[in-house]
Structures are given as C-alpha cells and as structure tokens.
Amino acid sequence: MQANVQSAAKPDNYTAPELSDAIDLGLIDPSAARFGETAGGFLELTYKDKNYPRVSVRRTLPLGMPYEYLSIADEENHEIGILRKLADLDGDQRRLVEKELERRYYCPNVVEVRSVKDQLGYVYIDISIQGTGDITRRTCAIKDVNRNIRMLSDDSVILFDVDGNRYMIPSLKALSAKSRRRLEPYLF
Amino acid sequence: MRDAELSFNLDSDMHPIKGVLRFNADAMITAIENGSQTHLISASEVKEAEVLAGVGCGLAYVKMKDGRDIALARFDMSQLKPAGEWCKIVNHFIETGHAALDQEIERPVCPKCGLTYPEGMRICPFCYSKSSLMRRTFEVMRPFWPQIITAESAQTLSNILFILVPIFNRILIDRYLTPRTGTFTQIAFLAGLCFLVRAVGEAIFIVTARTYAKAATLFCNALRDQAYSKIQKLSMSALAKRTPGDLIRRVMEDTTTLREFMTDNGRWVVEQITMFFAALIILLFTNPRLTLFVALPVPIVAFALSRFWRLIQIRYERQWRKNSRCQSILHDIIRGIRTVKAFGSEDREIGKFARVNRDLAKVSSDNEVLWSLLFPALTFFTGIGEFLVLYVGGRSILAGALSLGLLVQFTMFISYIYAPLRWLVSFPRMLADAMTSLVKLFEILDEEEDIAETAESLDVPVNGAVEYEGVSFGYKSYEPVLREIGFTIEPGEMIGIVGRSGAGKSTLINLMMRLYDPNTGRIRVSGADLRSVSPRRLHERIGVVFQDTFLFAGTIYDNILYAKPDATPAEVVAACKAANAHEFIMKTTDGYDTLIGESGYSLSGGERQRLAIARAIIKNPQLLILDEATSSLDLETESVIQDSLNRLVHKRTTIAIAHRLSTLRAANRLIVLEKGRVAETGTHLELLRKKGIYYKLVIAQRQTNKPA
User: Fold this and answer.
1) Which of A156, A164, A159, A129 has the alpha carbon at shortest distance from A147?
2) Interface of B with A (CB under 8 A)
3) Which end of chain A has a smaller Cβ tally under 10 Å, C or N?
4) What is the mean pLDDT of the segment spanning B52-79?
5) Do A139 and B115 touch (CB under 8 A)?
6) Which CATH number applies to B4-96: 2.30.29.30, 3.30.70.370, 3.90.110.10, 3.20.20.140?
7) How far from each other are the two terminal CA atoms of chain A, in whole angstroms?
C-alpha cells in the first residue's frame, strides 16, 4: 500500500504541461491554406485538400489584436481553425482575408465632430466619417451615453449609436480642437 | 403594384454608395449601385434570401437552388432590420408563390429632419418641440388643474403682498422718519402692516406648498399607475426591447423626477416670473434712470450664469458618472468576493478600486474648487447693480433729486429682480431633465399593444387541440428562429419537443402561449386562430412550468394561489400533493404559510420546481406546457417529479421540452426541431429506427451518461 502511494507521487520538479500544449488551439497552417473569392462574393477556403465554399473570419480580440488570432469558420459556424497572424499569409491571400474582415467589421473613423445636440435623453452627434472610402456625413443618435460612448484608452473612443453602428475615434488628439471641445462633455 | 425596395449604402469594398435592392411583381431581384445594375436574378432560381449580420454592418444574400450563394447588398446597421423584412417578402414568395409587395420595409423616417425614429419610438426626439411636449403634459395634467391653478393664484397673491413691504418702507422713511414728523402710532401702524403682510404671505405660502405637493404627488402617482398597467399589457416582444432595470427606472425614477420638479421648481414658475416683472414695472415707474442701472448687469449676468451653469452641469455630471462607476466596481467586487479570494486577486482589486476612487476624489475636489470660486464671483457680479444704484442714488439724494425712502425701496426691489433671475437661468436645465423623464414615460404610454385584448377577442374553450400551419417567427426580423413550422396535436396527446440548444424549442411554445404572434402562418387552439383569442382567457386555461421558476415574495400558499386566486385550501393541498410538494412543505415550521422569496425560507431547486408544478396544475388545465421543467434537477429528484407529472399528463394535452431525452420516452410523439424547422416526427422507437437527428442525440447522450 505504502509503495503504491509513493509511486503515485509526482517528482518535486513536476509541472503541469503548458495549456497550449495540452489543448490543441487548432492553429491553421498558412502554407496549407488557400483562400479565394467565389463568384457570389464570398470568401472560400481550401485547407488540407478540403474545400469550404463559404467561410467567415472572426476576430478573437477585435479591439485588442484585430489582426491576430483570427477564427476561420465554415458556413455552419464550425471553427476550421485559428489563423495566428494575418501577416503569416502572403500577398493576395492576406488581402483576401483583410477584405473579409473589412466586410464583417464595419467601424468607420470619425474625422470631424460637427455638432452635438442633447435632446430628450438622446445625444445627436453630427459627424464626418471615413471607412475605407470617401468621407461621408451623418447624424447619429446615442442613447445612454455612459455606456455607448466608451473610452478605449486615454486617447481613443468608440461610439455606439441606437441602431448598433459603431464609430471609432482612434486618436482624440488627431481631431480638431473644435471637434474635441464638442465631444469633451461626454467623455469620462 | 410597387416593388419591394431596400436601400443600401455600402459596396463590396465597404465604400459608401447609394444602392437599391428591388423585388418586383415579375419575381425579379435587381441590385443597383450608384445607378448601375450589379445583379439581376429570377426569384424562381432562389432557394432562400437571408441576412448575415456582421459587426456594425450586414449583408443581404440569396442561396440559389444550384447551391451557389450570391451577395446582393451590404449596409450599415441602420438597414439591418429593413433587410430582414425584404428577405421575408422574397422568402414568402418562394414558399407561397405570392408576392406581398405592399408590406412596409423601410423604417419610418421623421418627415422634418429625415432621421429614422429610434426603435420603439413614434416621435422624433431630434425634432420634438418642447411646446408640443408641454401641450401633451398639460393634457395629462388636466384633472389636477383646479388644484394647481388655486396654488398658483394663491402664490401670486402672496407675492403681491410681499411687494407691498418695500413700498411701506419707503412711506415710513420718506413721510415719517426723514422729516422726523411721524408719531409712534403711525410708525407702529406701518410696522404692523409689514408684519401682517409677512404673516399672511407666509400663511398663504404654507397652504400653497401643501396644495401643490398634493397635486404633484397625485399627478405623478397617476402617471406611475398608467405606466405600470401599460407595462403589464405590453407583449413580450415590446418588453424584450427594454431591460427590467429600464422599465423600473421609468415607473419609479422618472415619475419621482417629475414630482420633484413640480414641487421644487414647477410651482415657482408663475411666482418667479410675476415677481420679476412686477418688480421691474414698479422700478420703471418709480425711477426709469435708476432702473437702467439695475438692469445694466442683467443681460451680462444672465449670459454668464447660463454659460457657467452649463459648465457646472457638465462637471457635476462627470462627478456623478465617476461616482456611479466607483459604486458599480464596489458592488461587483463585493458580490464576487468569493471569486476574488479564490483567485487570490485581492491586491489587484484593492489597486483597481483605489484608482477609481482617486479619480473620483480628484473630480470632486476640482468641482468644489470651481464652485467655491465661481459662486462668490457670480454673487458679487450680480450685486454690481446694487452698488451702482447706491452710488447713483446716493448722489441723487445729495443733489435733492431723490428721496431716501425711494432709494431704500429701490434696493429692496433689486433683490426681487435678481433672485428670480438666478432661478430662471438654471430653470431650463431642470426643465430639460424633467422633460426627458416625461418623454420616457410618454414613450411607454404611447407604445402600441401588439397583442391586445380587444372587444372582438374570443374566449375559446381550450380542449387541447393545437395546430401549427406554416408558422415562421424571429425575435429580430432578420434572424428567423422558426421557419414554416406545421404539425397538429390531438387532445390528450403528450408531445415531446426535441432539438439541440438554439433549435427554437422554447420559441415554439412561447408562440403557443401567445407571448408573441408569428410573423407568418397561423396557430390554432381548439380550432380558433390564436390571433383572435383573448390572451388573458388563454393564459387562464394553460398550465405552464418553466425551467427557471419564478416565485414571488410571499407565502407558499400565496404562490400557489397566484395561478387561481379563488382556489380553496383543499385545492391548494391537492395540487401540492399531486406535485409531490406537500411533504416538504409540511416539514417547514409554518407549513403553507412559510414565507419564501428573498428574505424568507430558501427553497432548493427541486422544491421550487415542485411548487411551480403545483401552481401550474391547480387550474386543472387541459393544455400543460413543460419547458425543461425538470432539467435542472438531479436524477433522483427528477424521478420524483416525473412521477407526479406522469400522473398529471394523463388525459391532458402535454407539450414537453426536455433536455434529458429519457424523460420523453412516454410521449405519444416527438417533434424534432433542427435550425428552426421540423426535421423529424414520430414515436421514440420510430425515430430511433430512422437513425436520423433524434437517434444521434440519443446516442450522444448515452455516451455522456456512461460511467467513466
């Protein structure tokens, strides 16, 4: 009995295996992956000789690491694997995945705050925004500013309007003094 | 017939564009981007139209019969819901061959500013004028007008009396004191008059305050009652748009804000305005030149006050937010203290709180510093008029152009002008807060009851027959949960509903209880379309047990009676015996009078569930719905409850959802749901033989239950 107990004991220097060794993250081997665009405008993937006609790319950490740990899933939302870094892909392959990310995550940057109107519990902000294309102008309605105007750092802010649209201010310092002054009362 | 049109605003590179997606009477789908056609597809080749929701954007696309998927239109979130509606029209055509093109797709837009109305609102907050809000408020206040008008008139009378005091002072000084000709009686008479005016004024003030407070309380209570009863009548889909906290805030906090506004500020409106103008007119008549000096700082002070007021408001708002952040961190950590300790992260939490607390201290102290500088400065500046009047008036007295009494009267009236001014400057902000609360209340009161009890609502005897015919439904129109569901349940049958999580099982019975109405298709209960059935009557006749049982604070007895308030004690005990609850109830000190809920006896999961079953069956319902009624229980407790349920389902239509498939073995038929559609139906054995989805679910469950 005694011997059994002793043999079951682990040596002093025993350490549990690293979690990432114990659990398979399912990282995608970039060299075995071939992305393409279907005629219908969707991203397709051929991975280890298997074709997935419509795949989606999701960010694991959309705000913290937007181009790392990208989850690739099939049409049924079953994860095929995780792409460690977008930069692991080369040239046109990277461009295809990047385009898919742009199509899935739409969060244009605010380039100017033209006016702010506080009206009956809603804050209406007239902004100029720029995504991947031209600058456009719109008035967005924000309710519950405490929750929907969120400081991501001391300098960057994200706005959520009542429809669920998102607008990013990557750097408050980069905005004009006037824009900053208009928004200032709502930042905390 | 017009086409079903959806406007969209992004191209495939997510560049802003003007696009239109059209579905016309010839069943052709066209997509046009900046005037050029990008797609032309015949709906006859389409299997289904769908919306894919991304983050901050969405995509409408079609699945073709040949297996291809074609992306049609991309848009930001503003168009997500309309896109769902557009897809519904196309899908309806594919399924029925009928193009329902008259259906409204786009969200209603404010005709004045062109902005879409926020979800669930029928007024545009951007354009809503304060005057129309005031009109609406006056209408709601109509029953309380007599009290309010009485209070306001009395208040005005009291003000007029107060205005007499400076005039008496002037007479006293000019007629009796300066010439030293007054007798003791004359002086005593005037002093007595001043005393009397003050005393009467104060007495009126007390009466006014009481009348006003009463009217304000009654008005706000009436609003609170209306809001609460409206919430009770709203459908689940209307309620689901708001959080419980939001609804509670509207009923309690918004009405309190209004009451406070009315008692603290509202009643001063007439008083302050009359005071200001009365004093100004008297001053003008007495000495226009001196009045000019009084009025000189008025616009400057008003402007400065309004600017500073805004600044102070913003700063205090920030302090309020920091404070609430501090509180929420504290609340969170104390609630989760077990986790904090288990992870040994006490120091990290101390650091986190200290940081937020430091922030709060800084903002608070900055605000105090600003306030302590600003307030004396403003008061001083406001008093400049008084100094000017003293200087100019003093000179005029020395020159013999003005009497001393008049100057005293003047300086007294100055305070009658400046006090309302200070108040009036801050009034718009307070009014804005009250209006925000009012709008939120009106928003609830104006909400349309989509599942309303009407005079035409039928009282249908529920015999247990249920029929689903082409039922499709989604909580959000762009995400259908159920698609084309069709089946019939005969009276007395026990039906098991099976499927993976998210397959639509609970939604299926939510529709049966008419908590929601289907988007398309119909549900018949005892042969009558559920849309025509009175929801109240229906709920009286259906017994339901949910997985997450909610018991109200009160006694066990009260909780059982909740389902049937007129039940006799014998019925209550019988129901509890049937639900195997009687035994544990009798083990408690107070038996059926045991208090349960937050501060009462704490029930175990199995006990709660047995009470829920007793509550469901006391009505002796012909239709019994069990939504995962036993899934949160251990096997032993489950078998006790299952036992009581088996006794009950006899000769009663029962629809049961169960995660543990073994509990459904007694079902006459099983309906297997897969991605919102009926995938299989049949008995347990039939489905096992079929080796389809049900078979896989059973095998998977057996594997997990196998002892390791």
Assistant:
1) A159
2) 10, 12-16, 54-57, 59, 61, 68-71, 74, 76-78, 80, 113, 115-116, 118-119, 125-126, 128, 133, 314, 317-318, 321-322, 324, 432, 435-436, 439-440
3) N
4) 93
5) yes
6) 2.30.29.30
7) 65
